[in-house]
Amino acid sequence: MGVTTMDPTTTTLPDDATAASDGGSAASEPAAEDVTFPENLVGIRTLEADQIRLVLDTAEHFRAISERPIKKVPALRGKTVVNLFFEPSTRTRTSFEIAGKRLSADVQSISASTSSVVKGETLLDTARNIEAMLPDILVIRHASAGAADFLAKHCSAAVVNAGDGAHEHPTQALLDALTIQRSKGTVAGLRVVIVGDIGHSRVARSNILCLRKLGAEVAVAAPPTLMPAEAEALGVTVHHRIEPALEGADVVMMLRIQVERGGKLNVPSTAEYFKLFGLTERRLGLARDDAIVMHPGPMNRGVEIASDVADGPRSVILEQVTNGLAVRMAILYLLAGGNPTNVESTA
Ligand code: NCD
Hints:
The protein has about 350 residues and is α/β, with parallel strands linked by helices. The protein has helices spanning about 15-20, 50-65, 90-100, 125-130, 145-155, 170-185, 200-215, 240-245, 270-275, 280-285, 305-310, 315-335, and strands spanning about 80-85, 105-110, 135-140, 160-165, 190-195, 215-220, 235-240, 250-255, 290-295. The chain has a five-stranded parallel sheet. Strands 2-1-3-4 form a four-stranded parallel sheet. It is globular. The structure holds N-carbamoyl-L-aspartate.
């Protein structure tokens, strides 16, 4: 499925709308209509920088549509999106549900606790049964790394990875890139520091891949027990203290300790962790004056981030959630074969 399968004769966007975002793109980069989008979104690893920019540009259009009094467009009318959530989720699941509905798709969400998984059904059998109802897009969140890829290999519907174990969370990285781009004008050349449980975090992995593809300089900071052995191989600067990592940062991204994936503190208590690695106003003073603070949620206030920083003027945490909806609309739209230059004509 490419991006040019929708009717190309319909109205295109005005010039000012197509130029809404840049992301460090140069004049030599291909026009949006020349970039093809893959059939599935399993990870950032398999996306080219142009495809990432295509998502961000398409998401800009959907953000504008989401600010209208009537937020619904007919782009995915007649399409069916099934959300398969085998792990807890608030933001991601709601975001995919609203995204599908705003595109006029029929959306069905299934969670592990209310599905036949509790009766012993395998992922493959669940997927085959859902497939038999001929959905167009399957969105999956699962505790096992590789679950989305597995589904993509066995299903003819387009598959979106909404988080697979400690592996990847591509839509989170894309919404984070959109948030940075909207706040800073570009991602290229920025210094981004990611602090917390780098080792068990799919958000860290997808963000490192995405931000580097867009030309950012990425540093990570964590105690040794929460740092992956291969961190340097990901092309990032590794710190075992937060202070040097924060110096001169444009973007500070805080992460939760993934206790459900074996993330353990090497300190006696969460209070001790906060003392060593928590983002406080004082520590934030080490970053650039205009640095922004991000967190994918769910936040643990007083563990990785102080409440006044989370709610402070530099926090873009709720912007991330708003952008998440636009990014997920863009992903569903592109996977359904939508033409990015015709977003406006669907309204
Ligand atoms: C993250 C996740 O599920 O990976 N949350 C999210 O999708 N917004 C981060 C986390 O759970 O810490």
